[in-house]
Amino acid sequence: MFKRDGKRREMGLGPVRDVSLAEARQRAEDARRPVAEGRDPIVAKSAAAAAQKEAGAAPTFGEFADELVTNIEGGFRNAKHAAQWRMTLGPTYCGKLRGKRLDDITTDDVLTVLSPIWQKKNEAASRLRGRIERVLDAAKAKGLRSGENPARWRGHLNTLLSKRQKLQKGHHAALPYADMPAFVAGLRAREAVAARALEFAILTIARSGEVLGATWNEIDLAKKIWMVPAGRMKGGSRAPCAAVRSPLLPLLKGMEPLRAADDGASYVFPGQRPKRPLSGMAMAMLLRRQKHEQKITVHGFRSSFRHWVGEETSFASETAEASMSHAVGDATERAYRRGDALEKRREVMEAWAAYCLSEPEKKAV
């Protein structure tokens, strides 16, 4: 705050989340100099930004966004989170923004990116808006742009775009468990790495990120154990001691020829690029090529398993939830840390695998 022509004026130093205390103090000191010289620090800052723009020094949105993600990814929960930021701020969604200079971006530019997907992919569009706002806030904090943030929601974009739905994703489309044996039989006839990864996901009831990120040093074939690091678990939960079902042993041994020599950190399901896992879209694309009469998702197989347990078996609900790495309450969680917990989960998963690999029922003609 300062006085100019007898009037009190305020000058922001940047968002608290992006500006450290030391940086704020330095910016305050820099702003006091023009005041001491009888100049308006806001005008001086605008003039400096204009001079920078004239000199062509302002980076593009794409350059700055990439740099920002690199700087803040250490605070993300896992590598998948960082990959999502890079993907949404990349050419796929922000192609029309990435080449523009930070100080030239307007509300119309932001709307050009958001409007085409706001109704179709409202959840993803809302997250993208927040990330664009974060990039532009950080740019302003560094003096690379001035004025209001054109991606701000409250009091700005909320007057131009429809109110986002609280939940658009709904339930993941699942295959009826009665169709699982026939589906798995068709899957096992395919030789692609994506087919093996999907089979592994179905029989372990693990999430896609856990499967795609699996490395050989997490799996002990002798003890039939798969230890998933907490960093790859949803919510960063404790690493589960997952039983490797007997039917998975041939699958894993079949993947060993693709394993990098003497490299325990190599991926069980490698992608086409060296030292990279299978793409997150590989299993989804495989499902599309299957042309099943129902639209199904990879995550939906977890629902298929849960319905099967509830309707066709006498296994305890807590055992099924623990097998899916779901939180089941403090008391039950403590009980499942006992030595027999793994064996209980192994029993239900062995039964699930046996069911999925059973002879498909022949449908009446």
From TrEMBL:
Bias-annotated ranges (Basic and acidic residues): 24-39
Coiled-coil region list: none
Keywords, ordered alphabetically: DNA integration, DNA recombination, DNA-binding, Plasmid
Region called Disordered, residue ranges: 1-39
Domain named Tyr recombinase: residues: 170-349
Keyword DNA-binding carried by entry: yes
GO aspect biological process, one term: DNA recombination
GO MF annotations in UniProt: DNA binding
PANTHER family in the cross-refs: PROPHAGE INTEGRASE, PROPHAGE INTEGRASE INTS-RELATED
Protein name: Putative P4 family integrase
